[in-house]
Amino acid sequence: MQHENDLEYVLNKAAMPDNTVIITTLNAAWAENNTMIDIFLESLQHGQETQTLLKHVVIACVDEKAYARCLIIHPHCIRVKTKGVDFSGEQALLSQDYIKMIWRRIQFLTRVLELNYNFIFTDADILWFRDPFPILRHDSRADMQIACDHFNGRPWDVKNSPNAGFAFVRANKKTLKFYRYWYEERRISAKMADQEVFNVIKHEDTFRNIGMNLRFLDTHHIGGFCSIKYTDMTKAYTLHANCCKGLNAKLHDLREILDLWKRWQKHHTDEEGIDPHFTETRSCQKSMHRN
């Protein structure tokens, strides 16, 4: 089909009436059967009022194997090409290829803003339990809202520790200018990925002069393994496998939590109920102590 890999065509097909899409990225390692992309999509199928969001998800595939699998399991796929780079293997955090892949993602998201689409960007190692749009759209002041590894209780405070794996971005002049600036500032260090650079530039005069209203999201609702003790199944909208190294550790703990969520959904209204707290992420905790 001549339009199958045309970005504007795919975005238009997937967009909500207000020109908003949900974007995740995928490589071959995370596209294998019964691995990350399957858990991600399964969480959307079993969340509260999340099933209808599936038709708005665009999967940006960074290699041919991921693209081929995407075409089998999902209606909205796009092939994002990078000359001379193979992103198909598992990418170790902050390895050279990982950093290249992350900056290609920022470049791709900049193009989405240029085409005037709002987006949620979500890593595929995030479980979706509830539709987050009601809390994201509640504050119309925010141009960009970003998840945190650790949240200090002050949503407008740049001293928060952001996690670039989940962000809601409105397409406007400020966010487009910021994403272009963010991409350009990758030159700060060849060893820094998007999140590390973000943590530097959020304090710079150039960032302040752009005037983008940046809101940091409460880990009670947009949570992750780093702050899992501060949320539970009654509060969480999403849960990210951050503070975790390696595909196998992530898969083990995400699968355990997703299965627990499905059981809680069925039985939380019973008289005895099920403890709403998440299980300990033991595999991920162990992974953080390995070299």
TrEMBL record:
Give the Enzyme Commission number. 2.4.2.-
Q: Name one Pfam family in it.
A: Nucleotid_trans
List the InterPro entries hit by this protein, alphabetically: At1g28695/At4g15970-like, Nucl-diP-sugar_transferase, Nucleotide-diphossugar_trans
Membrane-related topology note: Single-pass type II membrane protein
Q: Is the Transferase keyword given for this protein?
A: yes
> What are the Nucleotide-diphospho-sugar transferase domain coordinates in residue numbering?
53-254
- Localization per Swiss-Prot or TrEMBL: Golgi apparatus membrane
Q: What class of enzyme is it?
A: transferase
Arranged from A to Z, the UniProt key words for this protein are: Cell wall biogenesis/degradation, Glycosyltransferase, Golgi apparatus, Signal-anchor, Transferase, Transmembrane
- Major localization class: Golgi
GO CC terms in record: Golgi membrane
Membership in a protein family: Belongs to the glycosyltransferase 77 family.
Q: What PANTHER family would the database entry show?
A: EXPRESSED PROTEIN-RELATED, GLYCOSYLTRANSFERASE-RELATED
Protein's name in the database: Glycosyltransferase
Species name:
Ceratopteris richardii (Triangle waterfern)
